[in-house]
Amino acid sequence: MTGHTNAVDGTVVGAVVQAATVHGGVHVHQAAPAPPRQLIAPPTIFVGRDAELAALNATDASPVILTGPGGVGKTTLARRWAHDLSSRYPDGQLYLDLQGYSESTAVDPGEALGVLLRAVGVPSERVPATVAEQSARFRSLTAGRALLVVLDNAFSAAQVRVLLPGAGPSLVLVTSRWRLAGLVIDGGAEIEVRPWNEDDAVALLERSLGAERIDRERAEARALARICGGLPLALSVVAARLAARSKHPLARLAAELGEESHRLAGLRTVDGVSVRGSLDLSYHGLDAAVRAVYRRLAVLPGRDHGPGVVAAVGGSAERASAAIDRLLQANLLEEPETDRFRQHDLLLLHAQHRLDADESPAARDGARRAGIEWYLAAAAAADRAITPYRRRPLRYEYAGAPVALPSFTRPGEPVGWLDHERPNLLAAGRMALAYGWNDLAWHLSDVLWPLFLYRTHRRDRIAADERGVTAARCWGNRWAEADMRKRLGDAYAGNGRESEAEDQLHLAVAAFRDAGDPLGVIDAEERLASLYRDTGREPEAVRMYRRLLAANRATGDPRRTALTLVRLGGVLTATGAPAEAVDHLVEARAIFGELGDADPYNRQRTEIALARAYLAQHETAEAAETAAGAAAGMRGLGSPFEEAQALEVLARAVRLGGDAAGADAHAARASRLYAGLGLPGPDGVEGEGGAAH
User: How far is 236 from 139, CA to CA, in rounded Å?
Assistant: First the structure.
């Protein structure tokens, strides 16, 4: 169609199909992703469980629920059986820890569904916003597939139901310390995992300590099995203690445990036998510095952590490293993946008990704040590495100098770190707000901006921004409230909540005015203009962009001016005024040229916008030359999506110039880039708003 322009801008993930008129079929081919293989390695020592394995092998139900008290070995059994069955499920194996130790710790179903959807190939930007939509999407994608899904530490039947795959040959294996009767009513099979009998418990000690040592004191080994109530966790701790002291008689340890068996009264086996004695004995066998690290792990947000934050509560990287090694040796800490550490839920409760008993309230709060502040400092380092141009007028005053912060030396590392630590960063923000550390809570929301810019995480972004608004209001900082309302408006707009978005942006404008920040007012109004542009109010958007362009010129900030020129140029191209658009974009090009390497990404995006404007007014040679330069520039920056955008403009330009073969080559290259990224359609585009923050 003459004069028709079809453009994709911003950052999207997934296949993109755009056309004015289509004759015939449209086929999009993408390489199938490798099936997920997420099972944790099988246990190196596995004893007993003949009855449970027989019951598992006899059932054809799904889900299968392994239920029993904490520390009884449900996860170990699940790991063993899942690996035995893995070859029967060629479409992949999924593993998810639902952290259902209590209602407050249980993973939100929306978060869990997001993890599962990404595991089966759905990019973050395409994960639906609501739990109902996420669950339906997961069922649709998994229907008819042979998947093994292990849901560890479930809290309730409701938490599990929304995570079940679609109809087909898949198997779901659930572990829970709770009896999930609702799943049994739905057709699931419940298998109780009980503590070991004496023979199996002694077999564990024999495998760990050697047959010769157990043969010398077999009666004492049986006494230890009885004292530990057959609980695998307690027996593993006892075995580690004995392994560290090869000359220590089993009889002496059995006597000590018998005397101290009342200490962990709140943690009992199904037969009422306390395991506090074994845990306290191991705890007191540590030196003071290691004991401090062990109990202070209980104050950290989230469930698994790297060595840096352990150093924050341990006092130094050296002490933390030594403590981690000692705790791993004593089976008081787990390492589920390299340099990630966590406490079993019973050990976490025991660490909390020791913290309450051995440290003052002030010391506990100090350790808790040190851990939360470490997450802020590390996230702030990632934030500065990704978006050095961002305005940061508010400084956070740390109670102490953060130690052992991560260093980011390679492209992609800062965003990857933020994404990996996302659950802990979000938990840190919630904890800071709960303890009334409002400025800390606000900053923890603020530093997540680059993560949401690059990886979206729509639900998390809304939650973090809403918490940021609450923290700012409790803090009483009007500027902080204005900035977070501006971001919340963006987040609402990205989730189709345009009315709420507009309300938040108007509130942001008013708050920036109250705070005496004219630049903040301009920023918030630019986001309003973008909202008008994206909701079919292009004339209003153009009027506002023109006014804001004059305001930004008056500030004397060239980068702000250039970004507004790019936005105005883009909407003018789309609304049939490419000549004026070219004028604005040429000026933006000159400004970014003068800025040098300060913002190479937006410099190349300006070139892509300019190539589109040239193409819209049929200046095909200029469009081709500009698009080719932009494609090369984005390739050098390692931005495949933007390179593909430039190649699409280049393909259209050379085709209009009569070079069909060249156009096909450029279009094919763009298609390969999109396929390599797994890009969605244009509805996944974020727009230009984030680049100016």
Answer: 39
